[in-house]
């Protein structure tokens, strides 16, 4: 079933992203999956997995055999950066300057630059993290001054109760913000990745130019 699910998701991504000339990278969200469930993804061509919680990631790491690029996609507490910075390829949920500064500090201690995405709260949901869209450009300029950070793009989590029309509007808005930020040509800021779309709406995300989608239950159901 995993093989069929991965292939079905990939087919939809290819179809919906055709006009962009780039198929979004599939990040398999593995927060509810055991290592025994995750490892077969490798033979299906999936090389990227996403974890939400630092402790869960730490527990799984020894069993993943170093096979995957691991993305931290959940909200990250500053005091836990040090536990994951050596093991993840990208942090998707940068949503405040105090976190940016801690990632920068930990990265500089290791003589590296950490790839990050800035999370935007495009639907203005009070219970969610993310930068307000009017604060995005000033935030990016502040991040540009931190040598341990390498900002690669933007990320968003859409409202769970939104219908398809509303979701389309949010995805379009994120694509607009992504392109706006790119046009600013802020030094040390790269707009390469737009991470948006999950199991229920990844096809829409691909239609509006996502470069990464985060899909979990649709794969492991």
In short:
The chain is an alpha/beta fold and 221 residues long. 39% of the residues lie in helices and 19% in strands. The protein has helices at residues 2-16, 35-38, 40-43, 54-60, 81-84, 97-109, 136-144, 164-184, 202-207, 217-220; strands spanning 25-29, 48-51, 69-72, 90-94, 114-119, 149-155, 189-195, 212-215.
**Strand portion:** 15-25%
Unreliable spans are none
What's the alpha carbon Rg, rounded to whole Å?
A: 17 Å
Helical segment count: 10
Let me know the average pLDDT.
97
Q: How is the largest sheet built, in terms of strand order?
A: 7-6-5-4-3-2-1-8
Largest sheet: 8 strands, parallel
Give the class from helix and strand content and strand pairing.
Answer: alpha/beta
Spatial separation of the terminal alpha carbons: 8 Å
The count of strands amounts to: 8
Percentage of residues assigned to helices: 25-40%
Order of helices and strands: HEHHEHEHEHEHEHEHEH
User: What characteristic shape results from the CA principal axes?
Assistant: globular
